[in-house]
Design a protein that fits this description.
The complex is a heterodimer of chains A (146) and B (112). Chain A is mainly alpha-helical. A three-stranded mixed beta sheet of chain A has the order 1-3-2. Helix content of chain A is 52%, strand content 10%. Chain B is mostly helical. In chain B, 56% of the residues lie in helices and 4% in strands. The chains are: A mainly alpha (146), B mainly alpha (112).
Chain lengths: 146, 112
């Protein structure tokens, strides 16, 4: 299960600053400055209305900082999606494992909105991890995540 | 506000606001006036400031985005990035925000 304290601890240990930056085009972003290789995570508090949203954004950005999966601003869609896939894979393998989904299903949490509650993460992040296991890894969950 | 732009340019150039004013032949109190009243200089003063920093008067007035460094690379080309959420094309406003984010990142590193 993803914990915010792990996010902050990971970035503290790796000297990756977490910078609040209102007015960004998205709630969260990760930037690598190729001038010196430094990485920073930016969070826009004005676009993070709930703790669940904050958890989702932090978890996802953790996927980028841990894997280094980033892209140029002008990168084509395919390159961007490849970087996103690597970040999703990282988070799925650590925080939303196939076993975690099975446990949720067994507890009766089968719909996407229910799983979002179970994991206390935004639906798109849960859906991305579910699709990673189902489509990329071929895990047969049976019913659920409709 | 004009003073914010002026202050950012001073930081970029590595001079204090007072020193910049002095080097432009302006009175020391003028920067305080810009800061406190939000006033924007006009005419000759504006041109002096533009010439001092090597930017256009339109840029100082906020009518134009940051110029790319002379003969240099846009900072956007010097970074890798990932945004949370759906894929999107970045418009000029978003690109300017990214330049500001990188400036914060670099400034922060300089202060650590």
């Amino acid at each position: 299960m993803f914990e915010l304290r792990d996010f902050y601890e990971y970035h503290r240990q790796n000297d990756v600053p977490i910078i609040p930056f209102p007015g960004m085009p998205a709630p969260g972003a990760t930037i690598r400055d190729n001038r010196d290789g430094d990485i920073a995570v930016f969070l826009d508090p004005t676009k993070l209305p709930t703790l669940r949203m904050l958890r989702g954004v932090c978890m996802h950005e953790n996927g980028h900082t841990a894997t280094g999966a980033l892209h140029k601003c002008a990168s084509p869609y395919e390159t961007v999606e490849r970087a996103e896939h690597r970040a999703v894979r990282y988070t799925a393998e650590r925080y939303l494992t196939a076993e975690d989904f099975c446990e949720a299903f067994q507890a009766g949490y089968t719909e996407l909105w229910q799983l979002a509650e179970w994991f206390d993460l935004p639906e798109p992040d849960v859906a991305a991890a579910y699709h990673f296991w189902k489509e990329a890894r071929g895990v047969a969950f049976g019913g659920g995540a409709g | 506000m004009f003073f914010d732009t002026f202050q950012a340019l001073c930081e970029e150039k590595g001079v204090s606001c007072t020193r910049a004013a002095k080097e432009m032949g302006l009175s020391n109190s003028i920067t305080t006036k810009w800061r406190k009243t939000g006033a924007t200089p006009g005419g000759e003063t504006l041109e002096k400031v533009a010439a001092y920093f090597g930017v256009s008067t339109d840029y100082l007035l906020g009518k134009e985005k940051l110029p790319a460094p002379e003969g240099g690379q846009d900072v956007i080309d010097d970074i890798d990035i990932a945004f949370y959420g759906q894929y999107r094309q970045l418009d000029e406003d978003a690109k300017q925000t990214i330049r500001d984010m990188v400036a914060v990142m670099r400034k922060r590193k300089g202060n650590v």
